[in-house]
Amino acid sequence: MGDPMKIKAALMDGVTEVKVLMRHPMETGLRKDESGALVPAWFITEVTATHVDRVVLRAQFGTSVARNPYLAFRFKGGQPGDRITVSWVDSKGDRRSDEATIG
Amino acid sequence: MTLHTGSTAPADADRRAALRAGGGLGLLGALTALGLLPPSAVRAEWTRAGFDAKSVAQALSDAGLGGGVNAEQIQLEAPEIAENGAVVPIRVFTSLAGVDRIAILVEKNPTILSSVFELPDGTEPSIVTRVKMAETCRLIAAVRSDAKVYLASKEVKVTLGGCGG
Question: What CATH number has the domain spanning B50-158?
């Protein structure tokens, strides 16, 4: 269970925009630490976003995604107060799920 | 790789996510992702379709986005110069309709394919995210609209590479 994501969801002109900042080191497995040892790969592999009970985005991530991944996307519909859920799985099998409501 | 968007019940979504998380590692990975095997059973090397490709063409093909053509309707926004290759913002959007898949690639990275997005009906073809860049090279966006693939690319100069090593 990693650190919480920051999620913002805003409705404008019938379109909901979601902005997510995930917290994750997204290690490529190519970086060396101070002792010269390779830091093992460790990265988010999948992201799913839902609006109430409907999936609005699925993503596969690899090691070329920046640390603390940022994602913004838009979908038609949504009402103020509706729940947006964003979940991720990483390469160690760790999971994280956070929610926000459409403002 | 096809992502099925049938049932959206949370249990099914979790099960599919778990299966997909382990999919690139085969049966061992799938069983581990489902909690039926300890994590030590998972290989350290992570390989998934597209993410271990060593060429742009192979990565696109593996991600179901082969055979694309450059198209002005695909907009790829990224900085001309990235001071820090570790965090490079990119925006991909298009006026095309019927878009169900978008991928972002970094031409000279050790892992060329950065991300692949599946867009259900109603989700707009507009993605903002951040990539890591090892060195100056092109960022490539591939967009699938009505089963046809369209591409756009932009070179980003990197003054400090961001992949490590």
Answer: 2.60.40.2470
